[in-house]
What does this fold into?
Amino acid sequence: MKLSTLTHLPLSADQGWPEIEHMHPRLVKLLVFIVLPLSLLPPLMLLYASSAHPGMFPAQFADKDWGRLAGVFFLAEMGTLAVMGWLIRQVAQTSGLRLDYHDAYLLAAIAPIPLWLSALGLLVPSLAFNVVLALVALGLSCGIIYHGIEGLSHTREDISAAGVVQTVIGAGLVAWALLLMLVVML
It folds into this structure.
């Protein structure tokens, strides 16, 4: 998968998605070479930021066990990925779109790439910068899901694709809120 292919995914159902569909990457290969390395970025960057510039975080986080938080965060990422693939397929089918399990899990594996990469923003010791970067990454992830649904299910039914995206992103935001609550409680 080329970087140029990835840059088209959040912006178009006609560019990038046909190439990915033609490649039909094995999910295990995708997991080992893309998902695992990139999903390690947020926990590792949290560990880095907590030690390199701890003042970036609110005072109540000063005494947190960042190693344990990073581990919980990583496990939550993996769990969310498994649930999201299933959810994408179920919601797509309920909306009358044809999407098999392979394509649903492929989309679930590709969609968080901008979010994972946004963790590199923790190199900059600014909470405001990181919040803006995370919001931009969330927008790109929404675009990937939206255009991925259209591209992989071969539909241009904007309403159906938007409904799937709304449900999937809503569930993702609920999972994210639960993870943040867990982080605050640990």
